[in-house]
């Protein structure tokens, strides 16, 4: 499983890079003479932009159950309305629809909500990619090898956590500056 996950992540990363570069190359000169920054959907021609928007809507529609079901179950537990086995199906559905409705209202009423999502996404991805892995490795390594822990490995983890934190702060700052320029 470790190797399959590794190669799958490599494949997804390379595919994203290729799609991003091809989209930039194809549509940069043809649709906007000065280029585009950020939102590629605004730069696409009307015909292909509609198809991409419909595909994005399909992705959202198919992934909503992956988000609303665990969120609804967590909310049921936090509100002490019972576990999923003791709660009736109608109450669970009501909570899930309420979560989806609140999220839809917030995303529709907050101006430039995509900028908020991009800021949160930038922060979370950088944190999960660069800070948590060396932090977890350092903690687990120290717990397992308390008496024989090599200071070199712990210093490497500390250095990676520091670099990851700086990277997270820096990319979040750049995204925030870009957000302010767009507003």
Structure description:
By secondary structure, the chain is an all-alpha fold. It has a domain at 111-183. The protein is 81% helix and 0% strand. The chain has helices spanning 2-31, 46-78, 89-109, 113-144, 151-182. Helix 2 packs across helix 3 (89-109) and helix 4 (113-144) packs antiparallel against helix 5.
Order of helices and strands: HHHHH
N→C terminal distance: 45 Å
**What fraction of the residues are assigned to beta strands by DSSP?**
under 5%
Low-confidence parts lasting 5 or more residues at pLDDT below 50?
none
Please give the count of helices.
Answer: 5
Q: Which structural class fits the helix and strand makeup?
A: mainly alpha
Radius of gyration: 22 Å
Number of strands: 0
Average per-residue pLDDT, rounded, comes to: 76
What characterizes the major β-sheet? none
What is the fold's blueprint, element by element?
Elements: H1 2-31, H2 46-78, H3 89-109, H4 113-144, H5 151-182
Main traits of this protein?
183 residues, mainly alpha
How would you concisely characterize the structure shown here?
With 183 residues, this protein is mainly α. It has helices at 2-31, 46-78, 89-109, 113-144, 151-182. It has a domain at 111-183.
């Amino acid at each position: 499983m470790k190797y399959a996950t590794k190669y799958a992540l490599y494949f997804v990363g390379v595919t994203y890079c290729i799609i991003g570069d091809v989209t930039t190359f194809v549509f940069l000169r043809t649709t906007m003479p000065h280029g585009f920054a950020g939102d590629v959907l605004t730069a696409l021609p009307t015909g292909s932009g509609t198809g991409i928007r419909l595909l994005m809507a399909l992705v959202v529609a198919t992934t909503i159950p992956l988000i609303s079901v665990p969120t609804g179950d967590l909310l049921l537990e936090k509100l002490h309305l019972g576990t999923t086995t003791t709660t009736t199906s109608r109450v669970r559905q009501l909570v899930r629809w309420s979560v989806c409705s609140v999220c839809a209202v917030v995303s529709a009423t907050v101006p430039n909500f995509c900028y908020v999502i991009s800021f949160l996404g930038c922060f979370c991805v950088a944190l999960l990619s660069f800070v948590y892995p060396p932090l977890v490795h350092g903690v687990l390594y120290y717990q397992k090898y308390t008496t024989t822990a090599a200071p070199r490995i712990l210093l490497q983890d500390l250095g990676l956590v520091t670099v990851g934190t700086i990277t997270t702060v820096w990319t979040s700052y750049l995204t925030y500056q870009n957000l302010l320029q767009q507003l």
